[in-house]
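Work package 3, deliverable 3.1, input record:
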Amino acid sequence: MVIILAKIVVRKIVLYGALLAIMFFLIGPYLWVIICSVQKEADLISKPPHWIPTDPTLQNYLLVFLPEVGKKGQLIVSVEKMPRGMLNSTVVALTIVVLNLFLAIPAAYSLSRFRFRGSRTVSLFIIATRMIPSVAVVIPYFIILKTAGLLDTLLALILPYIPYTLPFTIWILHGYFVTISPDLEEAAMIDGCSRLGAIIRIMIPVAVPGLVAAAIYAFMSSWNEFILAFVLTTSENAQTMPVMAAMIINEIYLPFGVLNTAAVLTSIPPALLAVFLQRYLVQGLTRGGVKF
Amino acid sequence: MFRLSKSEKFAYIFMLPAILSITILSIYPILYSFWLSLLDYVLTRPGPYDFVGVKNYIDVLGSDYFLRSFGITMKFTFETVSMELLIGLALALILNEPFKGRGVARALILIPWAIPDVVAGLIWRWIFNPNYGVLNGLLYQFGLIHSYISWLGSPSTALECMSVALIWRELPLAAFLLLAGLQSIPPEMYESAKIDGASSLTSFIHVTLPWLKPQISIVLILETMMSIRILSLVYVMTGGGPAGSTSVLAYYTWNEAFQYYNFGVGATLCYIIALLSFAFALVYAKLLSAESLY
């Protein structure tokens, strides 16, 4: 009895110990950046580090959003463009979400409900396009968009982000649709509903969690994308937050507080989505096992 | 001519917008990129550009730069993927146990994977900062080092620092994919193993691991592709340095294409990277004999 009890206790200790260590590794760095973003510059360059902000400040955030108030004689050009960067990122990401749903819902529906000639080929095609690295399309996109005079516009980002996100949203939705029984739609169709009507009125309301997962995925992928955005945009006309955040390291007299603030602002929308809609996202990523 | 049934017609019409947009926006650039890789295309020179056939491929594969960055990429890929799989499996096993605060833990753990890789690079660049970095501060306070170390500034540590940053970012995905596999194991399988007198270690080896094969191969394939293509982290954390010690394949490609504007060689390297990741995917699929990879 004692041995069994001891075993359970040891097991618990090992379990919690390992959990704490991994949690510290995964959460600590992000927490640290948030803390640093509200610290005074003098506290950031102290040795050893100033662990707990005794004197928090919103100065760095003021620099970004109210440069006239926040700036005290210093000029940080790259940071003042950031509100525009957030707008660009938001517009691109939301457009991609809408386009994804419009294109992916019918495609995923077809793949999950019909066995048609070539359906196997179509799924393979979609899987294969998922594997294309964005670094492989950035050169042709640069040439094509330059020729079309579209470089440094939001459209220059929206166009390549469609194939960048679409294969995976189709996969997420397909994984969700196959778990929904077709009986409901068929019953509606017997009652005189058209197939399209049945999809809109029956299927879509049931599939909301899957749609949420697909939408979050599309939003995150396009918000986070860096390589294409870095090459295809050159000014605040179309630069997204990751591009601005990456370019900040070229600023020579950049305060560390501002660097951390830029990191927080660039990551806060996807981080919040991940924390609050985690259930949908994980379900979408793993649903339907690993088979298409 | 075959006749289409009504539902087939419907299916084709429904598929069409997605297939068309993927083809135009993705397949066309890929083919165009292949054509570029056969040209002596240097943007800073006026066209038309000469067709040189496979010369770019021969030049690239025979160059010392390529061999060096290939070696760095392979080392980086091995380090990151193996750690992601091992720690990811440990984390998945922990998250599969009931404990207080599991929901909160699961939600918070996803953050590193959800944020932009550029930000992951900035975060770790700040942590590894030679003068004010928190890693130096911690190690110094605990008396483990006597003077601050320039982690990203020395060729012997820079690549490992990048590995840590990528492992940090990819661990949540690996863990959640493996966790989904763990949750699908029917409890009866463990019970029958227990009846046969199996210890928890043997049931882990004979029940859990074989069951997880599909998830393990997915993690291996996804994470290998991620590591082989790593670029944003390199750009933000080290810029390929110091002394070229973190100049991985994708960074070499980047340099050729957007520093020297040699689009022909850049496109060639892109194809080599893509073929390399496909080759890995095939090898994993063979080794783990997963019946059907999605």
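Residues 66-288 of chain B form a domain with the MetI-like fold fold (CATH 1.10.3720.10).
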